[in-house]
Amino acid sequence: MGLAKPKQHRPRLRKQNASAISVREQVLADFGAFQQSGRWNPNPSGKLGDERDRRLYTQLLQGLARHHRLLEAVVQERLHRGIHLDPKVAATLALGVFELLHMERIPAHATLNELVGGVRQQLGIAPSRLVNGVLRNLQRDLETDKPVPGEQPLAVRTSHPDWMVERWMQNYGTEQAVRICEANNRFAGITICPGLGLNGRALQQLLAEEGVQAPPHPRVPEALLVEQSAGLWETRAYEEGRFWVQDTSSQVITHLLAERLEGSVLDVCAAPGGKSLGLVRNGVRVQAVCDLSTRRMRRGRNNFERCQVPCPPLLVADGTTLPLPTGSVDAVLLDVPCSATGTIRKNPDIKWTRSATELLKWLPLQSQLLHEAARVVRPGGVIAYATCSLELEENVRQVQSFLEEMPKFVLEPWSISKPLPTAWAGWETREGVWHMLPDDTTMGFYAAFLRCVE
Q1: 388 an active-site residue?
Q2: Residue 235 near residue 265, CB atoms below 8 Å
Q3: CA 227 to CA 280: how far, in whole Å?
Q4: How far apart are CA 352 and CA 371, in angstroms?
Q5: Is the pLDDT of residue 11 over 50?
C-alpha cells in the first residue's frame, strides 16, 4: 500500500537564513561523499553554526541514508522516462522529498525555495526548473492526500537492498522480515543507563528537574528513552556522570551477565567499555578491559572517570592473541566485531553494504576470537559470546561451529540459574540463547552463554 501523507499544519519557523542553506549544502556534500566512497561519517566535514544547525544536519543526513531508496522511487514517479539526472540534482531531489515527507516543522516553501535556489546557483536555470517541478508535484499530491509513493515492494518501501530483505525472509519468515524492515526506519531517540547509586526513577526525576523528558522503557524500566537529546549534554546530570548512553539490548545483557558471572571477568573487544561500566556498577569484578584500539580505550577511560566508576586495568591487545596464560580467567565477555545489522535503526549506512559477502567479512575473526577466549578460560568458566547482528552465520551457526570444534564447551541457557523477568519473555530462544530482534524501542542483539565443562 502507498503511504498517505495526512494534511498537517506546518508551523512557521524562524526565518531561514544562510546558516540553514549551509546545512543543506553540507548534507548534500557529505552524502555524496558517502555514495562515492562507502565510508560513513555522520559528523559534518565542514563547520556548522549553532546546536540547531548541527541537529538539523543530523536529521537530514540520517534521513537520506535511512530512506534513500524510497526517496528515489518517489522522484522517479515524477520524471519522464529517459531523463538522466545529474548526481547533484538527484541528491537534491531526494533531500527535498525527505523534507516534504518527514520534516513537518519545516515549511514546504522554505524547502523548495532553498533547494531550487541552490541548484540554480550551482547548475543553472534548467536543472532548477526540473527540481522545482518535481517537488511542487509532490507537494500537490500531499495536499490532496494522494498516496505517496504508489505500490512498492517491501525492499523499496522500507529502503533496503533486495538481497538483504531476501536473507531475512529466508531466515525469519516474511512477517518477521517486514517487522524488522519497518523497525529499522523508526529511530525514536537514544537510551540511557542510570549511573552509580541511581535507579531509573531517580535519574528520570533528576533530568525532569532540568527540563529533559526521559520516560522508562516499556520492557526495561531501568533504561530511559530520550527522544529530544539536544539539551541532554548540557545537564548537570551528564556533567556529574549520572548516566551514560547505552542501547536497551546492551543494558539487558549487562544485567543478565552481572547476575550470572562469577570470579574475574575479562572484557574483550570492549571499547568504548559500556558493558564493562555496567558490570562494575553492578559489583562484578572485571579483571581487565581489552581492545586493540588505543583511541577507543581512551574514550572508555574517560567514560569511567566521568561516571565516577572505578576503571579496571585497560589492556591494549589483539583479542586473537591475548597476553594471558591458558586457563587464567573465570569468564570472558566477547562482544565481537560483526555486520551490526541489528543496529541499522541508528546506523542506516549499514543497509547499503554492497553484498552479503562484504556483510559477513567478520566471520573468520569471530571464530579466532572465540577460540582464543576458550584458551584463557579455566575449566568451569564461561564465555559470553555476543553480537549486534541479525545474521545467522554470525550467531547461531558461529556458535554451533565452535561447539562442534570445542566439545569441552556446552551451551548453557540464560534462565538455568535464575528466572527471567516476565517482561523479557520471548527474548530467550528454546535453545537457550538470547536473541532480540528490532522493534519499536529495541535494536537487534544476540548472546550465547558457553560453559567449559572440562
Answers
A1: yes
A2: no
A3: 28
A4: 31
A5: no
Report how many domains make up the chain.
3
* Residue reference for cell 563547520: 47
- CATH classification at residue 223: 3.30.70.1170
- In-domain check, residue 179: no
- SS3 category, 68: helix
Residue-wise burial string across 378-401, b where 16 or more C-beta atoms lie within 10 A, e elsewhere: eeebbbbbbbbbbbebbbbebbee
The residues, ordered by sequence, that sit 6+ positions from 14 with a Cβ below 8 Å of its Cβ are none
Q: In this structure, are 30 and 144 located in the same domain?
A: yes
Output the nine-digit C-alpha cell for 176.
518477521
Of 193, 311, 388, 452, which residue is the catalytic one?
Answer: 388
pLDDT at residue 104 is higher than 90? no
106 with 219, same domain? no
| pTM as predicted | 0.89
Confidence at residue 71, expressed as pLDDT on a 0 to 100 scale? 95
- Is 6 inside any structural domain? no
pLDDT of residue 7: 39
Do 225 and 294 fall into the same domain? no
What does the pLDDT look like over 71-92, one tens digit per residue?
Answer: 999 999 899 877 888 899 999 9
- CA-nearest of 306, 307, 273 to 289 is 273
Domain range for 40: 18-152
Each residue of 266-282: pLDDT tens digit? Answer: 999 988 889 999 999 88
411 domain-assigned: yes
Does residue 46 have a pLDDT over 90? Answer: no
- What does the buried/exposed string (b/e) look like for 177-196 if buried means 16 or more CB atoms within 10 Å of the residue's CB? bbbbbebbbebeebbbbbbe
Q: Under 8 Å CB-to-CB from 317, ≥6 apart: which residues?
A: 290, 291, 292, 323
